[in-house]
Design a protein that fits this description.
homodimer, Com_YlbF (chains A, B), coiled coil (chains A, B), 6 helices, YheA-like fold, YheA/YmcA-like_dom_sf (chains A, B), UPF0342 protein L2716_00340 (chains A, B), 120 residues, mainly alpha, binds calcium ion
Chain lengths: 120, 120
Amino acid sequence: MSKNVHDAAYNLENALRESDDFKELQSLYDQVNADESTKNMFDNFRNLQVELQQKQMQGQQITEEEAQQAQQTFELVQQNEVISKLMNAEQRVSQLIQDINKIVTKPLEELYGNPEDPQQ
Amino acid sequence: MSKNVHDAAYNLENALRESDDFKELQSLYDQVNADESTKNMFDNFRNLQVELQQKQMQGQQITEEEAQQAQQTFELVQQNEVISKLMNAEQRVSQLIQDINKIVTKPLEELYGNPEDPQQ
Ligand SMILES: [Ca+2]
Ligand SMILES: [Ca+2]
């Protein structure tokens, strides 16, 4: 990696780390982890999400029962204010990362006419 | 997006665009596209690749015949010097983008203990 690219990537990492969106995410994540019952609720929901996504990625069908269970768990954790705020903060940071990726991979998009990685 | 993050992302985009790896990729891509028979050979190979990857992503089995056809097409296009150089340049830029992503998403990795997007 050239020095210029390397330095620019580290500058971006630092700007992201110092951004309000990331700091709020960090603070809410710490709040969730500081309370055991909140942490358990959040971990269970996250594990369920990961499980269903892995099934989908492997081309397996999600049953109606599983979809219902995920929806119920989602509604339950949403009622916890700190978790709800954390999930919103995660969405904002996720969007921020997507926007960053769109900017950074623009040279490739211009070259190939689409934003995907050229090897994929 | 905060001004700092925005500016840092644009700086990185520019550094990537000005890097030797990217400039070489661009030059080789232009060379491949400038010659019709080379372009056709490359397009056919790329389309075959995309087709097989879509099948895999949809959880479909790649047949032995398809795998053999892909391997033969790969060996054929590799014998074209410009295409072979282009594919090597693509791999270097792809690796560069992966290295950049690893740096930029380090704050998230530290927060969650893994490098994945928190929403995924
Ligand atoms: Ca409690
Ligand atoms: Ca020719």
